[in-house]
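Below is one such record:
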Amino acid sequence: MPLDPTAPVFDAVDARLVAALQHDARATWGQLASAAGVSESTAMRRVQRLRESGNLLIIGVPDPLRADLGQPVLVHLRTQPGQTVAVAEAVAGRTDVRFVAIVSGRSDVICELIVRDRAHLSRILLADLAEHGAIVSSRTSMVLKTFKTRDEWSQELLPGTADRPRGPVVPTEKPPRIDHLDMALIAALGQDGRRSFVDLSGDLGLSETAVSRRLNALLASRQLSFATLVNPVLLGFGLEAFLHLRVELSDLESVALALAGRPEIRYVSATAGYSDVICEAVFRDNDALYDFLTRHVGMLKGVRHVEVDTELTTIKRVFRHPLFVPAERAGTETP
């Protein structure tokens, strides 16, 4: 994502606080202060300032497949010259679209739909998108399994994080069904991932203990996770990219798990379509991308082909559109 010239430049303390929040979005102020080497009041004041400015988002993010909210579908669009931004903005305006980015590569726009069923998907692909005369072609990939949705690319900014255990990948067992109270909890945390149990208790009409128990259950089943979102450029990471991998199907699981274990990777899914595995990654620069492709991806057994799309700008993420703007002006949608 390019740097807005009006956006503030994060200093070293800001960067360490963001990295600590990406490691644990609901860490206590004491834990954040310790990680950043500042007082609790300084940590609280700086995080609050970054959040109010719109440059830092801390939210709960449900897994649509495991939470039974819909089927994620990745759609790659080619557009008429000069029409890419208009198409991306039009697609981002849909309430069933969770993510939109303008990229360079085989595609011009990558978006993620959350659809109810095949009829919903058919209507989008065959009717709604066809209304945009600027769309030249499209490719569609069905998300079969999501292995990771977690930002860890900033962890090198915190001393001692290399050996910290990372969050588990999606468990293999079938998740429990969520009820209306779970959905209300997910919706509340989708607006603010650091809301206290006291606040959540008042909204849901449950005791703090009951709220804590439900949240822990959602996290353990990986039906919900937390995201700490920031423009990577503000922390010195200037390159975001999508990697599309064709792999031997017998090695798909091991490849996806290996990628999910890398801090550069923020998202990994197995897909049915053009690619077998798709992942989104954050790097400092082109040299870091080259090193990752040659030293890590190139060493994975079963990888037959890799295609890279560089993200030029992210229009929408986790239903936030616009993305990094002051809270009072941010548009949000809930799946």
Observations:
- The beta strands are 57-62, 71-79, 97-104, 109-115, 135-149, 224-229, 239-247, 265-272, 277-283, 303-316.
- The chain has a mean pLDDT of 91.
- The radius of gyration is 20 Å.
- The longest strand covers residues 135-149.
